[in-house]
């Protein structure tokens, strides 16, 4: 039996007499039926006391910045705000009944609630159609992506043959603007409305913009700095505030952690993450751009409680949000889309390519499939202007306080990093997919040539700031890692079209190139340690060492005793750097214990002597003495628990044809 249909509570005389549904609520005068019949659309005047009143939805005004208008958070006086510029008394509280759960207080009320829900749904469809046709009744605020050729507005293209409709629209917002008392009380109990002190906030924002923003430019810098400058950071989007603080904790002085009552950076970072995630799950955030910004930042959380799966989880959310918003597509592919501002274009490109960057490198590090297929994307590559676009109006004094002085150069490094990430995706597709055609020699060499053309500068200007020097070295680490990942499988296999007589010589050449890239990685680490730049290491820095460490460990299986000891010494240098990283990053501890076990199994006689020698040469006299026993073997508890499972992990580690799939094997240890 078909669902019951209801006539509109407001209908013209003709539709009321014919007892048919009238579109007057949606289209106004004339209704659709009267327009089709070329008849006069007459609406009877009725007394207010006898008329069923249809409530109209009032839409709050909102700014163009998604981070300014997206949250619903109490400030210092516990006033509810959906925008930092509008007080609660100036806005109506909107309470919409979800379509899935209408309020039932009798048959008549149930029918009325369902009727209003249907009208809301139809109005939303009308708003989408009007925006797609370029004739919106109201200015839109919420980004909406209609999809490709088979998307939601594809029917309208039949009405406009030869003309392409825009896929990126802005439609009116119908998001509720108030939190329930229960949600507010819960968020208060979790401390999300209690920001750190002014000194800590200042230090955290400095840390974010000097260390994280140059490689993850996902926040609109001028907005958050403006709110901090005027002393109203609590009125900015709190989900973004806590997400920024979470990734910035690694770089604040230790006394800031003590000042806020934390025993370590790791403890403070866990608290910041907990509050950001609480806001993400319970803060009522509806703006997908804000959710995307937060999920990209929260993707740096590692925890053994979930088998270190959070980076993959959060990045998956980021990719999904990007594709829902259509950030993978060029909004101007058909014609220039006047509804999208240049500021939005810059932000959208930054968000999309940051998401792409995370997808490629996490796929390598975690041994997971690539989520983004570039054949589905046509968004332009990023530019320096994309990163600098929201800094034009930042006062010079504020810029000098919070941002690196050579940010324009760092923006160039970021663009080059995105290009390298594209090439990494090509390497993973060609070499590491489980079902793939075997590449030809020309394909391998063509991809190698593309990578070599993207080589970052070898030297830097002596006047560069310390952050700029670090980011250049960091870019070089990415470059060397890509080369190793390209070369490594061909130490044991050859292209299909390579003649047998040339195979051995070709493989030797490939192995030398891979060894050279691994040695170059060690050179970069030496410089980072010598210039005291390891403190700038980012969450993605420890995984960049793994390709070189795997090559060193692989080479320890062959050669003369002296050659093996020399290769082991290179691995030990990486181990000492990894030990430094594990003070801040959990993932470094995992990597270190796996390689320690590998060293112990491959070189049981030489391991202790070589490690002691490496420590005495490489560690400065002022540095604290490292735990030498931990470099040779994992703690006893691990030794007892892992046993044969760790042996299998080391075998996988030495497999020359696999990518860096540590986590899959690591997760199996706890099943």
Automatic annotation (TrEMBL):
Per the record, the GO terms for biological process are: DNA-templated transcription; positive regulation of metabolic process
Show the segment(s) annotated as Disordered.
49-94
Which CDD domains does this UniProt record tie to the protein? fungal_TF_MHR, GAL4
Could you tell me which residue ranges the Zn(2)-C6 fungal-type domain spans? 11-43
Keyword match Lipid biosynthesis: no
Which Pfam families does the UniProt record give? Fungal_trans, Zn_clus
Keywords for this protein: DNA-binding, Metal-binding, Nucleus, Transcription, Transcription regulation
GO MF term list: DNA binding; DNA-binding transcription factor activity, RNA polymerase II-specific; zinc ion binding
Which SMART domains does the entry mention?
Fungal_trans (SM00906), GAL4 (SM00066)
Show the InterPro entries listed in the entry. Fungal_Detox/Toxin_TFs, XnlR_reg_dom, Zn2-C6_fun-type_DNA-bd_sf, Zn2Cys6_DnaBD
What is the protein named? Zn(2)-C6 fungal-type domain-containing protein
The species this protein was found in: Aspergillus sclerotioniger CBS 115572
